[in-house]
Amino acid sequence: MAPSDAATIPHTVTEQLRATIDAAGITENVDLVARILATGIGLGIDPADRLDLKIASAALTEMRAAFQLFAPYEDVPKATIFGSARTLPDHAMYRQAAEVAAALAGRGWMVVTGAGPGIMQAAAEGAGPQNSLGVSIRLPFEEKPNAVVGSGARNVAMKYFFTRKLMLVKESRGFVCVPGGFGTLDEMFELLTLQQTGKADPTPIVLLDAPGGTFWSGLQRFVDEQLLPTGVISEGDFDRVLITDSVAAAVDELTGFYRNYDSLRWVGRRLVLRLKAEPTDAEVEALNARFGDLLAEGAIERREPLRVEREDDDQLELPRLVLRLNQFRVGELHRLIRALNQLESAPAA
Question: Residue 176: helix, strand or coil by DSSP?
Fold first, then answer.
């Protein structure tokens, strides 16, 4: 239990919480479950007003429902497709969204959407009901889940945008943004912020336009003409994004990001990159020469699983590279990952 919780909750109550956890048969992550319960008791002690309690209660309830929805598909790669609810079925962008979703489903991916009309429905239609998951929002004027995920078995409804956005981002290994309004732009910029600051693992982001469209190229001009010259972003911050009007290029970008790179884990200050194929000595030497400026100290090294990884039985079968990344350069990690995918030792595309 967190020290701040323990300091405000009577010892007898904490003992009762532990007893309740035991009675419920909970044996894993007991410390975290106890912290959640203690936080709820703490909110009552504070005391929080009723609105605060309603927000906290609804958020936790919605997150639990979303975790349950996604849990059976934990090992299936997923891509979230963002776009406007106002896009009509006869629009070229509707067809693009359906085609990119269908292509991803054909490569064994599932598609996650906001479960509404427009682009969200197009993506769900393209992927098909067996490959679609929805996280809808309850609004006074819209929007009911679309027919593809509306049965409820593949959709969870949220009251708050922040819990919905959490689940749309947390569960996916890639993202496609198609032209949309304030909501789509908000989601796209949050993705970029999470990547730039290292608050989310590196993932591929595609800005997909209609054939011959200029929506996202206009954003590129704004970045080049307004953001970069004023220094509010760094050179290369926008390089992690692919702007394209090609469905094939979009799908290749998402799936190709995991050609050799599998996942990462922080162990203290050390970053562990898990790969599908072990690099050669010469390749590791070349990576150090090319990306040494990203390191806080030391070198990129091939290593056996670290002790904490062995204790957790965490992807022990995969080869890995270990490095001490300069935390101020975490937003550039995608460059190293893309280089790993291009190694000669990497699996065939």
Answer: strand
Residue 224 DSSP symbol: I
Instruction: Provide the whole-model pTM.
Output: 0.91
Give 96-136 pLDDT, tens digit per residue. 999 999 999 999 999 999 999 999 999 999 999 999 999 99
Three-state SS sequence of 32-89: HHHHHHHHHHHHHHCCCCHHHHHHHHHHHHHHHHHHHHHHHHCCCCEEEEECCCCCCC
The beta-strand segments (E) located in 114-154 are: 132-137
* Alpha-carbon gap, residue 63 to 167, rounded angstroms: 8
Q: What residues in the chain have per-residue pLDDT under 70? A: 1-7, 140-153
Amino acid at 126: G
What are the chain's domains?
3-71 (no CATH), 73-256 (3.40.50.450), 261-341 (no CATH)
Q: Please choose, from the candidates 8, 11, 64, the residue with its C-alpha nearest in 3D space to the C-alpha of residue 33.
A: 64
pLDDT in tens, 2-39: 445 555 788 889 899 999 999 999 999 999 999 999 99
